Amino acid sequence: MLWTRQLKESIDFYTNILGFTCIEYNEDWGWATMHLDGVEIMLAIPNEHVPFDKPVFTGSLYINTDDVDYWWAQLKDKVKLCYDIENFEYDMREFAFYDINGYLIQYGQNIDGIED
Q1: Measuring CA to CA, which residue among 10, 59, 60 is closest to residue 33?
Q2: DSSP secondary structure letters along 33-100
Q3: N or C: fewer beta carbons within 10 Å in the chain?
């Protein structure tokens, strides 16, 4: 569950930029569920019992893909990049960017799964 004060804008980012489908949205609850292949992300406006000014999540959302180069080509000019696509010593090819709330998202693929 990712908290946001920009629910509609976040839905737009995940659907129009990242290709997710919004499978559930409830404006009264301030909540939505996004789905793409095997990945499901929930977005919500925090309730009044939770202090929330901005995201304080210290990790990242890591999405394994079968074609990281495809996603790199699709997203590199549409998102705020954290780092460009790169091969890492731990046998992953990946890149990272921020969503409109500041959450870090990484797309990665095992190097063994990449055809030359």
Answers
A1: 10
A2: EEEETTEEEEEEPPPTTS--SS----SEEEEE-S-HHHHHHHHTTTSEEEEEEEEETTTEEEEEEE-T
A3: C
* pTM for the model: 0.88
Q: What mean pLDDT is reported for the chain?
A: 93
Residue reference for tokens 């009264």:
28
Domains, the chain: 1-46 (3.30.720), 57-116 (3.10.180.10)
CA distance 66 to 109: 6
Q: Count Cα atoms within 13 angstroms, Cβ side, for 27.
A: 2
Token pair belonging to 102: 């500041």
